Amino acid sequence: xxxxxxxxxxPWVVPFHTIGRSVIDLVDNLGAATIFFGKAFLLIFRPKQxxxxxxxxxxxxxxxxxxxxxxxxxxxMVLGLQLYYTLVKFGSEGLLGSVVALSLxxxxxxxxxxxxxxxxxxSSMAAEIGIMRISEQIDALYTMKIDPVRYLVSPRVAASxxxxxxxxxxxxxxxxxxxxxxxxxxxxxxxxxxFSRIQSSVDLADIRGGxxxxxxxxxxxSTICCYQGYFTHMRLDSHGARSVSLSTTSAVVLSCxxxxxxxxxxxxxxx
Amino acid sequence: METPLIxxxxxxxxxxxxxxxxxxxxxxxxxxxxxxxxKSGAGKSVLLKHIIGLLPPDTGTILFQGKxxxxxxxxxxxxxxxxISYLFQNNALFDSMTVFDNVALPLRQTTAMGPKEIEKKVxxxxxxxxxxxxxxxxxxxxxxxxxxxxxxxxxxxxxxxxVLFDEPTTGQDPIRKxxxxxxxxxxxxxxxxxxxxxxHDIPDVYFISDRIILLWEGKIAFQxxxxxxxxxxxxxxxEFLRSLxxxxxxxxxxxxxxxxxxxxxxxxxxxxxxRTVTAVLFSVxxxxxxxxxxxxxAAEVLKALGKYINTNFTPLGGFSVRTHTGEILAxxxxxxxxxxxxxxxxxxxxxxxxxxxxMEALTEAKIGIASCFEISVYAGITEANSSEDIDRIxxxxxxxxxxxxxxxxxxxxxxx
Lengths: 271, 416
What we know:
By secondary structure, chain A is mostly helical. Chain A has helices spanning 14-43, 50-61, 65-89, 96-134, 137-143, 148-186, 191-201, 204-230, 240-270.
C-alpha cells in the first residue's frame, strides 16, 4: 500500500504537495542509489568476482565496441566535413585536426560513448536484472546465501568502470581518423598539418578530463540501470512485465539525462 | 519437552489491509518432515519466506533453537542462513544458465570446492533427480516437471540442514509426485535434514510427514501428527482437508482413505447378519525398492501392485486403500477366510508370474549384473468385524504377513 501522504482537500495546496512529493522522491532515490552504488562498489573486491567481471566486460565492453567504433567514425567524419567548410571561410582549415581532436577528446567522445553504451548495454542490464527480480531469481540468490548485489550489480559496475574509458579512447581515435577521412582525403586538406596540429594542441589535461568524464559516466549509467532493474518490483505505477518495460525505459532516459547534466558539472569543474 | 527447531510466536504479517498471518504460533521440530496445508492464497509461501528471512514479520518473533532470529548477530545470522535451502513454487531457475550451471551455482559461489569436486557433486544430484540428459539444456527447454526437479536438485546440492519446499509437486504426474515426495523422505533419512513443505498431495504427503500444519484464514487451525488431523476445530477447514483427499489415490487408482472408510461402513451395515469380512494387507519394502531400483521404478512397482490388486479383487466386490507408502489394505466382504487364503495364494502366484517378471522392462530401473535386486511382496490375511477399527485390522493382518511373491534378478537374465 502506498503509505505516502496525500494532498489536502484544499486546492491551493495541491501544487505544493506535488512539487514537494517529487522533490522528496528525488532525494530518496538519489540517496538510495548512492548507497546502492557504494555497496556494489565495495563488493567488487570480494572473492569469486573476477570471472563475473570478465564476463561483464565482454558483454558491456567488447560487444559494444562495434557500435561505438561505427558511431565514432561517422561522428569524426561529420565533424571533418562541417568544420572544414566552416574553417575554410576564415582561412583556418589548418586548425581542423585540433578542433576535431579537442571536440572528441574533451566532449563528444565520453558523452556519445556513454549514450551508446546506455542504449546497448544499459538497457539490457535493467531488463535482465528486472526480469530476474520479478521471476524471484534474485530471491533465489538470497536463499542460496549469494548476495544479489555482489553477484549481479558489482560485476556490472566494475565492468562499466573498466569499459567506458577504453571505449571512449577507441571512439576518440576512430573519430580523429574519421575527421582525417573527410577533411584530408575527401576534401583535400593537408594530412601532415592535420596530425601535427593534433599533437601540438592536445594536452594531457584534455585526455585526463575525458578520462574522468568517462569514469563518472560509467558510475552513473551502471548505477542507474542496475538500480532501476533491481527495484523494478517497488514501482508504484506498474507490476510484472510492464514494470520491467518501464524500468528499462526509465533506466535509458535517466542515464542519458544524468550523463548530460554530469557532463556540464564535470566540465565546469575541470575548466 | 523437546525444544522446537523453529518456532513462530504470535507472528503477524499484513500486506496493505490484508492480514495474511494473524498471530500465528507454530513449532517445527528437528529431523522431521512438517507439511503446511491451506487454501490457495492462505499465506503458506509467506510463512516459508519468514523462516528464511525473505520477509520480516510485522509483529511477533521467530525463534531458531530458542533464539529470536531478528536479534541474531551477523555471524549467527549467516550461519543460520547457510543451513537453509529453499525450493520456490515457480522454481526461480536462472533461465540464462544451463541445468548444470543452475545446480552448480550455490557451490561455486558459496564454497571453496574445486571445479572437479563441484562437477562430481552436481552430476550426482542431477542423476538422482533423473536429469542426466537435460544437464546441458536451458530451463526453458524443459517441461514443468523437469524444471521442478532441477529446482529440487539445486535445493539439495548444498546438503542443507533445513529445506523449505514450496509446492514441490505442482505440475507433476502421479508417478513424479510420488517420486518427489519419496525422494524428500529418502533424502531426509539419508542426510538427516529438517523438511518443511507446502503440499496437498494426499495420501503420499501424509505418509511421509511427521507433522501437519493447517493454515486457515491466517491462523493455525491444526498442528500435529496426521492421524489427528481430522480433529480440526474449524468446520470449513475440515471440509477442505476432505476435499483434498478426493475419491481416488492418484498413484495406484485405489480408493482414497475417506472413501475407503465410507465404503467399509456401508459394507458392514448392509451385511447385518454376517458382520465378518476378510481383510488382506499387502506390502512391499518401499525403501529397499528405492535403494535397488531408484525412485521412479519403485513408484512404478507400487503403481503396478495397486493396479493388479484392483484388477483381481474389484470383480469380487473387494475394495482397497493405500495405508502407507508401500502398504495396501484390501477388504473382501463376500469372501470367507478359507476362500481368502486360497485367493491370496493364487494372487501371489499370478503376481509373480505376470507383474513382477515385467519389472526388468522398467526403463529406469538400474538393473545389471553389478546391481541385482529383489522385490518381495508380503501379504497377511485376517478376519475383521464391525467392532474393530481399521488400524486394529491392519495390525492383525500385519502380524500374519508372509512373502507371497518374490522376484530376484538373474545375472544370466530372466527372473527367478
